[in-house]
Design brief:
- By secondary structure, the chain is an alpha+beta fold.
- The protein folds into two domains: 180 residues, no CATH class; 207 residues, no CATH class.
- The protein has nine helices and 14 strands.
- A hairpin with a 5-residue loop joins strand 8 and strand 9.
- Helix 1 runs parallel beside helix 3, helix 4 packs antiparallel against helix 5 and helix 5 crosses helix 8.
- The longest helix is centred in the middle third of the chain and has 35 residues.
- The chain is globular and about 80 Å long.
- The chain starts with a strand and ends in a 14-residue tail after the last helix.
- The C terminus is likely disordered.
- Bound molecules: zinc ion.
- Zinc ion (ZN) binds next to loops.
Length: 403
């Protein structure tokens, strides 16, 4: 089994290196935007888009020509890589089965990133002491940038595949993608569990365990509103306005860090205790995107949905699903997604399906057999039953599991 893992560290570049990084990120952004505008004009004229190879030739011309000679001051590999990303994004946008959003132009300072695709070009100096025994800082070598200091907050495992440098607010980070092969793991537990995602409780497990919602976002909401108001009172693009904008961006960053941390804790506990986890396949993105509806078909109950959507985003369900997926696989377990239809209206004891079974949000009462239960717990038990009766390939590996 191959385990791919990303290790992220904060870089501590010198002012000169910061300038070089900004320049390299600017070049990458320029190449992306220019290539995208060319591809768009080809599409408008209905001539099909240029291939990656053709686009790469354009890049060579830009770098060698006079008009865009500044591009040649930065490494070519990240610029080529952004063309590869764009190529991928265009293919994804035209994918008939599940089309993704059409790529957009990149704005200065927003999601700036530089991908270094060649691991042999990246060097690490992980010494913590110099030859006289004095403490020194770890460094990473980035082509055309030089040796950049960083703090090795946790050790790197595996072989380096690539690295991405990105800017967040006013800090630079490096994310090192690694790969290592391990023997196929065998999950220490043999239990299977169903989990219902909700608003009142983040997760309810079929064994009766509850996980409370993460309130980080809501706690900070008032603070954010206050800071946003302060921003509105300032003159756009003035020094104070920019400072306030940075403050808000940092607040957002802080909230997302708290949330991610909480989701890591929850997913670690669940994936260690259970070999098989069954979740509803909610297509989270569809749910969160649909409240507004279209002009021909305005969405119903926009207000309620918007509230629910905010909660959904708040909880970061899709992040949690992703974490459970890879953590389970690394441990030798598996995540199963099932169709969510009727999981909340079905009686987990007798199987009777009736919308009248759930007249209240929190209580389930079966009109057929009289079974009373916490509504989310009843749903979680139905989800587990669906996952383990669906005859999933791979479930056979868990012959010991109490399925
Ligand atoms: Zn019943």
């Amino acid at each position: 089994m191959i385990i791919r893992k990303a290790f992220r560290y904060r870089l501590e570049p010198t002012p000169e290196q910061t300038q070089l990084l900004s320049g390299a990120a600017g070049c990458v952004r320029f190449v992306w935007n220019r290539a995208l505008s060319i591809q768009k004009s080809y599409l408008e004229q209905k001539c099909g888009i240029l291939s990656f190879g053709e686009m790469s030739k354009c890049l060579t011309n830009w770098r060698n020509g006079e008009a865009f000679s500044f591009l040649s001051e930065s490494r070519v590999a990240p610029q080529q890589q952004t063309l590869r990303f764009l190529d991928r994004a265009l293919l994804d946008a035209f994918n008939k089965k599940s089309p993704k959003k059409f790529p957009t132009f990149k704005k200065k300072g927003k999601k700036d990133s530089i991908r270094y695709p060649h691991p042999e070009r990246i060097k690490l100096d992980l010494q913590t002491e110099d030859k006289d025994g004095r403490r020194i800082q770890q460094k990473i070598y980035l082509p055309k940038i030089g040796w950049v200091k960083f703090r090795l907050s946790r050790p790197i495992e595996g072989k380096i595949r690539n690295a991405t440098v990105s800017r967040e607010v006013d800090n630079w980070y490096i994310s090192i993608q690694t790969e290592r092969e391990v023997a196929d793991p065998k999950h220490p537990s043999n239990s299977a569990i169903g989990a219902d995602r909700g608003v009142a409780n983040l997760l309810t497990l079929s064994d009766g365990t509850f996980f409370a919602p993460i309130t980080a976002f809501r706690d900070q909401q008032l603070k954010l509103v206050k800071e946003q108001r302060r921003l509105a009172r300032k003159k756009r693009h003035s020094v104070r306005w920019n400072r306030q904008k940075t403050k808000i961006a940092k607040l957002h960053q802080h909230v997302s860090a708290i949330r991610k941390n909480a989701l890591h804790q929850i997913s670690t506990i669940i994936s260690k205790n259970h070999a098989v986890v069954v979740l509803e396949d909610l297509k989270v993105r569809n749910m969160t995107g649909s409240a507004k509806g279209t002009t021909e078909q305005p969405g119903k109950r926009i207000k309620q949905k918007a509230g629910l959507n905010k909660s959904i985003l708040d909880q970061g369900w899709s992040i949690l699903q992703g974490m459970l997926d890879y953590k389970l696989r690394w441990l030798g377990g598996m995540l199963i997604l099932v169709n969510p239809a009727f999981t909340s209206q079905t009686c987990s004891v007798c199987g009777h399906v009736d919308s009248g079974n759930r007249l209240e949000q929190a209580v389930f009462h079966c009109l057929h057999c009289g079974h009373d239960a916490h509504a989310d717990l009843n749903a979680a038990q139905n989800i587990l039953a669906k996952g383990t009766t669906a005859g999933h390939a791979g479930l056979a590996c868990f012959t010991g599991a109490n399925l």
